């Protein structure tokens, strides 16, 4: 029996820091309330600090779909950034993302969809799902269909930059993290336990 009768759709998007962090905070709170949570990370390789803790939280099922390499749309990344990434970045033309990435994301989404529709979870977090749609790895309509068909009691949380307008319209709560100032711009790399 779910704690809440109504589960809403929350979206955390924008170019500022804090989208996954917000989802992690809600997950911790839900775990403390004895809720059953699925936390699924799209486009994230193993190695993020939260991945050590998520599986240990009561009621949390965690999964990452990995990240075989960094991807970028042609024209969206500078030559300097590309040089920094080296062989770990694949640049693709709009509408033609790498097939292996598309398959990985779609296979993972099929699993996530089953988890949502099972009704077994009080809350499901689809971390970085917005990015999968932005890169054309996953169709917006598939995610909209999941939103429309989710069990009434299931809270569904979608994170990631560039949330499509259709997803924003379908959500009940939308928070945009807006970057005003960031030390990345001063050359500070991701710090363990803070951004990584």
Account of the protein in words:
With 196 residues, this protein is of the alpha/beta class. 34% of the residues lie in helices and 19% in strands. It has one domain (9-67, 97-186): 3-Layer(aba) Sandwich (Rossmann fold). It is built from 7 helices and 8 strands; from the N terminus they run βαβαββαβαβααβαβ. The strands form 2 sheets. The chain has a 6-stranded parallel β-sheet, with helices on both faces. Helix 3 (79-85) links the parallel strand 4 and strand 5. The chain is globular and about 50 Å long.
Question: What's the tally of helices?
Answer: 7
CATH homolog superfamily: P-loop containing nucleotide triphosphate hydrolases
Q: What is the N-to-C succession of helices and strands?
A: EHEHEEHEHEHHEHE
Strand order of the largest sheet: 3-2-6-7-1-8
- How much of the sequence lies in strands comes to 15-25%
Work out the helicity level: 25-40%
In short:
The chain has 196 residues and is α/β, with parallel strands linked by helices. The protein has helices at 19-32, 50-53, 79-85, 99-117, 129-134, 140-149, 165-170, and strands spanning 9-13, 37-41, 60-64, 70-73, 89-92, 123-127, 155-159, 173-176.
List the main descriptive attributes of the protein structure presented here.
about 35% helix, 6-stranded parallel sheet, about 200 residues, alpha/beta, Rossmann fold, two-stranded parallel sheet
Question: How is the secondary structure organized here?
Answer:
Elements lengths: L8 E5 L5 H14 L4 E5 L8 H4 L6 E5 L5 E4 L5 H7 L3 E4 L6 H19 L5 E5 L1 H6 L5 H10 L5 E5 L5 H6 L2 E4 L20
